[in-house]
Every structure is written in C-alpha cells, then in structure tokens.
C-alpha cells in the first residue's frame, strides 16, 4: 500500500525514542512511498519548539541513523512535520491539538485518518488516552493508537490503563509495541517452524528435551537507575520480550497466517501457561544483582538506585505450558545486565536417541541467533573424510553482507505495520494479561522472600550471571550457550 493518508500525533516528539527510532523509521517509509504526499506529523512535547526547529531535529535524527540521504527529499519530508507545545495534563492543549490536526487533515487530504503514538513516560499514557476521548480527538477515518512499553507495572495497573484506552479505542485499534517482535530473526520463528516439514516434525514434546532462551545485555543500568530500580529485569525484559519469544516458540500452528489466526494460536497456548506458586518460584527461578569492578559501580551504588535495593538485574527461570506441541517441555530463560556479551538467542535441545554412535552423537541443538547476528543453525553429523569417526558440521541459514544491510530496523517494520493495519507483531490484551499474571506471581513470591530477609544473589559482572543449576529439571542439563 502506498501513500496512506494519515495525520500522526506523536506524544513525546522531543524524546530519545522519537529521535533515534521513530523519525528515521518514518523517513524510510517515506522513501518507500508508504507515506508520501498525504501525511502530516504533529510532534508534541513540553518544550516551546517551533515547527522549523522540530524539522531541524527530524533532519538531524535522520542524518544520525541513515547514510546517503537525498537532501532535497529529506527537506520535503521534514516539511510534513509540525510542532505543538503540549502539556499532557492540560485539557486546553488537546483542544488546540485537535484544531491543528483538523487543519492539517484538510491541507494534506488525510480523510480523517489518525495515528496516535504514545512515546513518552508510561505514567502519562492513561491521561493522554482519557483526554483523547473527552476532547474527541479521534478522526472520522481510521483511528489507531500505538503504545510504547511498559504497559502497566503489574496486572492491576495494566487493567486500569487498558480501560482508559478503551474509552476511545477498540482492541483492534490498539498497537502495543514490543520492539523484539520487529526483529528479523524473531519474525523468522514461524517460517522456521511451519515452513520446513523436517523441523515441524521434530518440534514437539517427543523430540525436544528443553528450550533455552538467553537475552544477555553487556551494559549496566547507565543513566536509567531511577527507572530501573522500580522495574527490575523481570518486568523490564521477561514480561514482554522473553515471554513473547517463548510464545512464538511454543504456540500451536495457526489456522492461517492472518494476524487474527496468529493471535488466536497464541491465546490458546497462553491459556495453559503454568503460573508458578511460591514453592515453584523458589525452586525454578533465580534472581541476581551485579557487583562492581574497579571501573564500574556495583548495582546498589549506581546513581538513583537505593543502597538497600533488592531489585534484580538478572533473572533466570522455567516456563511450562499444558498445551501446544511443547506441552510439558521445560523452557528455560535468563536475562541480565552486565553479562559477558550482548546476545539474544534460542537453543532448542533435542532428545538424544541412543544409537549406533552412542555418546559421540551428542544432543542436537537448533539455534536461532537474534542479536547481534541474524542466523539459524543446527549440527549435522557426517564422517571424517579419511576415517569413520563422526564429523559434526553446522548447517546455517544466514545473510550475506548486502542482505544484512537490507534488514530494516524493528521500529521501521512495526510502524509500517501500523500504517497497513497489520497487528501480527503487536501484543494483544489477552496475551499481556497472561504475561502479567505470570510475572505478578513471581514478584509476589519475591516480596514474601524479601520480607523474610531474602534478596537477590550477587553475581560477578561481565560473566554469565549467578549459579542457575537448580532451575534445570534434569540435573545433567545446563545452558548450551555458556
Ligand atoms: P524521553 O524522556 O527521552 O522522552 C519523553 C518525552 O515526553 C519528551 O518529548 C518530553 O518532552 C515529553 N514529556 C514529558 N513530560 C511531558 C508532559 N507533562 N507533557 C508533554 N510532554 C511531556 O523518553 P524516551 O526514551 O523517548 O521513551 C519514551 C517511551 O518509549 C517510554 O515509554 C519508553 O519506555 C519507550 N521506549 C524507549 C526506548 C528508547 O530507546 N528510548 C526503547 C524502547 C521503549
């Protein structure tokens, strides 16, 4: 679809996300003609910027992210941006915003279509949603709402936010962003599972011993200590990215490839997600907190972090489902800050069939590398050329350098999907609700532990985190990626 007529209202137009991700993504969509003549963007934030200043910022943001920009095209693109100084809590400002949106709608012939993008502190999402409703900001064409993460801080707050949003938007108009769903290899999980009969045949509880998901970050909390200390790894990474990846790995085959069918398959799986009780949390989850080095702070010494903080910067655990092809198969995950290297990957460990070659034919693994490389590989055994010993080789699915350069940024892909109304790679409310139920149960058990003097275990930074051996169902198992 080309030249989709839209007025986009971006709350948080002076923010980091808008600068680093949203403006470059919109420019690429402009270059691809997804948006062209009939679009306008209203950037809003508190600062008293002018239209001209916003346009300069947009151009600077594009230059910082995209090489080889056609200057005339960039100027033309930036000309579609308008700035509205706006305090989200001031009702009057919504009236002005509505008037500007209507004016631009007429000027650019946008047919009453609106995309509202909430790219600011999550504590404002509810207020904005309510004012969109009470000041009737929605247009006479299509109306879509893009919401950044985190969507609530627990199930109760997510429910409140969802009700506020429902005052103006139906569920099929809401696009909850999880930028991991925009990643190339995350989007390759369904083609891998359902586009290869060989893989499809082994992707089940008879053949799979366990699944391992690692999402390791090299960085610490940096300047985000204040935010992070109220969140922690469980809410920041597991509630969204890790559980979404796990859902894609374990869901049953959807009826077809439509967004509705894919979400139906996810919901079917999630209805059987086993929410752990206190004992299961003690047995199957580990939380950690990083120590310092000569040059880096221990977590509790980071700026804006409480000295007695019990917030986890690392969490590992076990997820199980009662339905789907991997019903009953342990799915292990871990995520942490200040780990040895930045890496996101999935390892699917197959059961070892005792056979002619005994232990020499080690457990086979299918690996999906999501970050920093984009690749899938598994091991195939042949024989050494001169002898009869086993010779393992990796079979890889990967991109050439040129192809790699063509992989779009996750944000570009997801914003494109909002324009074309494809909700496949966004989080639906029913999914989110289950994720919060799971996370809240773990959080509640940890609060109990804290009250009894418990706390996260300390781990050495820039290694692979604390001892997690207790979470493995079979003590002989361990992480494939060490
Ligand atoms: P930011 O602090 O850089 O920007 C916040 C924006 O909100 C600014 O434009 C600011 O002027 C505006 N704002 C603040 N208070 C306001 C008020 N009262 N009225 C009007 N405007 C106000 O934040 P960010 O890093 O851009 O993050 C925005 C959202 O995106 C958050 O939900 C965050 O979790 C999410 N997110 C950010 C990133 C990232 O890389 N920055 C990545 C993933 C998700």
From TrEMBL:
It catalyses: D-glucose 6-phosphate + NADP(+) = 6-phospho-D-glucono-1,5-lactone + NADPH + H(+). The active site is at residue 241. NADP(+) binds at residues 46, 87-88, 149. SUPFAM superfamilies: Glyceraldehyde-3-phosphate dehydrogenase-like, C-terminal domain, NAD(P)-binding Rossmann-fold domains. Its EC number is 1.1.1.49. Catalyzes the oxidation of glucose 6-phosphate to 6-phosphogluconolactone. Belongs to the glucose-6-phosphate dehydrogenase family. PANTHER family: GLUCOSE-6-PHOSPHATE 1-DEHYDROGENASE, GLUCOSE-6-PHOSPHATE 1-DEHYDROGENASE G6PD. HAMAP family: G6PD. This is Glucose-6-phosphate 1-dehydrogenase. It comes from Lactobacillus nasalidis. The gene is zwf.
């Amino acid at each position: 679809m080309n030249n989709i007529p839209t007025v986009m209202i971006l709350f948080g137009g002076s923010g980091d996300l808008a600068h680093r991700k949203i403006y470059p993504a919109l420019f690429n969509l402009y270059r691809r003609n997804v948006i062209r003549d009939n679009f306008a963007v209203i950037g809003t934030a508190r600062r008293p910027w002018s239209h001209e200043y916003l346009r300069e910022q947009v151009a600077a943001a594009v230059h910082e992210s995209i090489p080889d920009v056609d200057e005339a095209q960039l100027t033309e693109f930036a000309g579609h941006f308008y700035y509205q100084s706006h305090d989200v809590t001031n009702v009057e400002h919504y009236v002005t915003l509505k008037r500007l949106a209507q004016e631009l709608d007429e000027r650019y012939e946008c047919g009453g279509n609106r995309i509202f993008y909430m790219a600011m502190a999550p504590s404002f999402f509810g207020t904005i949603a309510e004012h969109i409703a009470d000041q009737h900001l929605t247009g006479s064409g299509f109306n879509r709402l893009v919401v950044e993460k985190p969507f609530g801080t627990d199930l109760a707050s997510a429910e409140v936010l969802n009700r506020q949003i429902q005052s103006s938007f139906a569920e099929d108009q809401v696009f909850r962003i999880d930028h991991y769903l925009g990643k190339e290899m995350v989007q390759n999980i369904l083609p891998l599972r359902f586009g290869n009969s060989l893989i499809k045949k082994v992707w089940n509880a008879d053949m799979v011993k366990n699944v391992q998901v690692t999402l390791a970050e090299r960085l610490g909390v940096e300047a985000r200590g204040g935010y992070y200390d109220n969140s922690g790894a469980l809410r920041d990474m597991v509630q969204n990215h890790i559980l979404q990846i796990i859902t894609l790995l374990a869901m049953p085959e959807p009826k077809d490839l439509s967004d509705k069918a894919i979400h139906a398959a996810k919901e079917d799986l999630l209805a059987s997600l086993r929410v752990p009780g206190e004992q299961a949390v003690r047995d199957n989850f580990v939380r950690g907190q990083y120590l310092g080095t000569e040059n880096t702070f221990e977590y509790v010494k980071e700026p804006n972090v409480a000295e007695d903080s019990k917030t986890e910067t690392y969490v590992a655990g076990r997820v199980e489902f009662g339905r789907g092809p991997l019903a009953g198969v342990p799915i292990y995950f871990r995520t942490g800050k200040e780990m040895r290297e930045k890496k996101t990957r999935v390892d699917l460990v197959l059961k070892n069939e005792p056979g002619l070659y005994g232990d020499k034919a080690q457990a086979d693994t299918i690996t999906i590398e999501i970050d920093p490389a984009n690749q899938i590989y598994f091991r195939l055994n042949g024989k050494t050329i001169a002898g009869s010993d086993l010779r393992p080789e990796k079979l890889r699915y990967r991109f050439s350098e040129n192809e790699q350069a063509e992989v779009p940024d996750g944000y570009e892909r997801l914003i494109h999907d909002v324009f074309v109304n494809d909700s496949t790679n966004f989080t639906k409310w029913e999914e989110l609700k289950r994720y919060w139920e799971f996370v809240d149960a773990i959080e509640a058990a940890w609060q109990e532990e804290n009250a009894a003097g418990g706390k996260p275990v300390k781990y050495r930074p820039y290694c692979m985190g604390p001892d997690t051996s207790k979470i493995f169902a079979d003590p002989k198992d361990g992480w494939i990626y060490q």
